[in-house]
Amino acid sequence: MTDTSEAVPNFEEMFANRFTEDDKEYQEYLKRPPEMPPIIEEWNSRSGGNQRNRGNRLQDNRQFRGRESRRGWPSDNRSNQWHGRSWGNNYPPQHRQEPYYPPQYGQYGYNPRPPYGYY
Amino acid sequence: MALEQAKTSVNSETETSFSIDETTTASGTGFSVKTSVCGQVDTPKKRKEFEDDLVEESSRYEEDSPSKKRKLDIEIVPEEKGSGDVEGVSRKRKLETDDLKDEPSTGDGTQKKRKVELEDVPERQKNLEGGHSSTVAAHYNELKEVGLDKRSQSRIFYLRNFNNWIKSVLIGEFLEKVRQRKNRDITVLDLGCGKGGDLLKWRKGRISKLICTDIADISVKQCQQRYEDMKNRRDEYIFNAEFITADCSKELLADKFRDPEVRFDICSCQFVCHYSFESSEQADMMLRNACERLGPGGYFIGTTPNSFELIRRLEASETESFGNEIYTVKFEKKGHYPLFGCKYDFNLEGVVDVPEFLVYFPLLTEMAKKYNMKLVYKKTFLEFYEEKIKNNENKMLLKRMQALEPYPANENSKLISEKVDDYEHAAEYVKNSHVRLPLGTLSKSEWEATSIYLVFAFEKQQ
């Protein structure tokens, strides 16, 4: 250890509480509900069908666009958001009412209202 | 990690399905050819499994798509740099969405190939590589068996695709950020490039210059071959590239760059940086390589296991290990977690145990300060997904990449997992009224494996 050797001790001291009850960040993390797999409705991926189908589908859902605009994410979304797309789904993104990190079920597509029990 | 390996295999399998679609539809064929070549080679690398293949898929789509081409033509004309840059913004999007749309035709080819060949399958172990050339070779040989293994490999097909999507979106996000500042001459360092699973992404991203480095020589060669194939494939624009085999935790990469003064806008380190946490010196060297040559406002982005999640699961386990039928993580000791050298074995899909080292993220954040790096964010894969899926283009990309599994399965196919419990969450969800089927989801087993990871981004301060 050369130049880093000095730093190491500092880190040891700095993070002496790691993963313990005094590790606030870790303790906060432990409070999170278990993460459940993402769920998206109306999932017609390529394997499931051909593109033509997808295209149609989009149009069908078009009405729902727009709902979603609520927040602009840091860099990427804004402009891309709902302008016409060719296929895929356009259901509005999620309508989650709660904070989001314990994201349970990802998307509630399509339906403006989350299904019972999920949000 | 195992994940990567898995990816490979996945691809192969995937291909099948994809091939059908894509090939048919699109021009994938041409690509396929290339791919195959690459594919075979690939084996050795690291764990790219997770991502690489996947990535390509997405990329392929993008690449191929007509729209891109057009752009390309225009851009291409000048030099790579110029062209790429010009496109800047638009490209980004393409990265994610546009390409995809078009993609059917083009992109597919590539992926398919790989998948077919299975190339990726074996590889894992890249870490080891130093002394593992023989191992690598062995893996290589194993590749041929992939076909047979498809099933098992396919078991993490969606997982890999999902991870690949995560990478695609992450890369797209930060390329966009860079473009807000400059639109030309975007230069990227791919630290731990593996066989080049992200090449298409960078191409999509219209960068001007890419330096790929990996500890595994075979991987780097495959990466280079893949790049050459891409370059020859079409008239499309592609960045300039440089390939370096080196252990980024032990060697100073700057000494190996063609242009010693090169400055990067982004350093991407996907599923790799935890290997360097074997010692403080190695972690520091990795960070130095990743960050020292970043220009002001440059980004260090990547994916790595979330130590909070690892330890949470470990401590909830009655033994020193945890996992499921897809993955297992085995620590040497519970309750004692050194900052460096906290080794654990990660086994994915029964493939090779690759030793990894716990990365206590607050430590990484602190160490990065030495290189004037400030944390932009760190997010679990789920957090990242939840945020990014709100963008419709990202969502479409998700579909194109087949990053979620249809539930229930189509008439002609089966769910990837035979365990009913793996879809309990989906079955429960379906009980709700107004649910539009099919759902897209991941089996719990796959989700447990991928939800170990987090996404991070640091920005170089002025």
Automatic annotation (TrEMBL), chain A:
Polar residues bias (residue ranges): 76-92
Name the UniProt key words of this record, in alphabetical order: Nucleus
| Pfam families membership | RAM (PF15320)
Annotated region described as Disordered, given as residue ranges? 32-119
Bias regions of kind Basic and acidic residues — which residues?
A: 57-73
> Cellular component terms, GO, for this chain's entry?
mRNA capping enzyme complex
Q: Where is this protein localized, as stated in its record?
A: Nucleus
Give the compositionally biased regions (Low complexity).
45-56
InterPro entries annotated for this entry? RAMAC
Q: Which GO terms describe its biological process?
A: RNA 5'-cap (guanine-N7)-methylation
Listed GO MF terms: RNA binding
What's the family? Belongs to the RAM family.
Annotated PANTHER family: RNA GUANINE-7 METHYLTRANSFERASE-ACTIVATING SUBUNIT-LIKE (PSEUDOGENE)-RELATED, RNA GUANINE-N7 METHYLTRANSFERASE ACTIVATING SUBUNIT-RELATED
Q: What is this protein called?
A: RNA guanine-7 methyltransferase activating subunit
Q: Which organism is it from?
A: Spermophilus dauricus
TrEMBL record, chain B:
Cited InterPro entries: mRNA_G-N7_MeTrfase_dom (IPR004971), mRNA_G-N7_MeTrfase_euk (IPR016899), RG7MT1 (IPR039753), SAM-dependent_MTases_sf (IPR029063)
Q: Where is the MRNA cap 0 methyltransferase domain?
A: 154-461
Residues the entry annotates as binding S-adenosyl-L-methionine: K167, G192, D214, D247, Q270, Y275
Kindly state one GO CC term assigned in the UniProt record.
mRNA cap methyltransferase RNMT:RAMAC complex
Q: Superkingdom of this entry's organism?
A: Eukaryota
Q: What class of enzyme is it?
A: transferase
Tell me the keywords, alphabetical order.
Methyltransferase, mRNA capping, mRNA processing, Nucleus, RNA-binding, S-adenosyl-L-methionine, Transferase
Q: What biological-process terms (Gene Ontology) are attached?
A: cellular response to leukemia inhibitory factor
Intracellular or extracellular location(s): Nucleus
E.C. code: 2.1.1.56
Which reaction(s) does its UniProt entry say it catalyses? a 5'-end (5'-triphosphoguanosine)-ribonucleoside in mRNA + S-adenosyl-L-methionine = a 5'-end (N(7)-methyl 5'-triphosphoguanosine)-ribonucleoside in mRNA + S-adenosyl-L-homocysteine
GO molecular function annotations of the record: mRNA 5'-cap (guanine-N7-)-methyltransferase activity; RNA binding
Q: Where is this region: Disordered?
A: 1-135
For the site labelled mRNA cap binding, the residues are K195, K201, R226, H274, E356, Y453
Residue spans of biased composition, Polar residues class: 1-38
Q: Which residues bind mRNA?
A: N163, N164
Gene3D superfamilies linked to this entry: Vaccinia Virus protein VP39
- What does this protein's UniProt record list under function? Catalytic subunit of the mRNA-capping methyltransferase RNMT:RAMAC complex that methylates the N7 position of the added guanosine to the 5'-cap structure of mRNAs. Binds RNA containing 5'-terminal GpppC.
The similarity annotation says: Belongs to the class I-like SAM-binding methyltransferase superfamily. mRNA cap 0 methyltransferase family.
- The name this protein carries in UniProt is mRNA cap guanine-N(7) methyltransferase
Organism, by scientific name, is: Ictidomys tridecemlineatus
Instruction: Identify the coding gene.
Output: RNMT
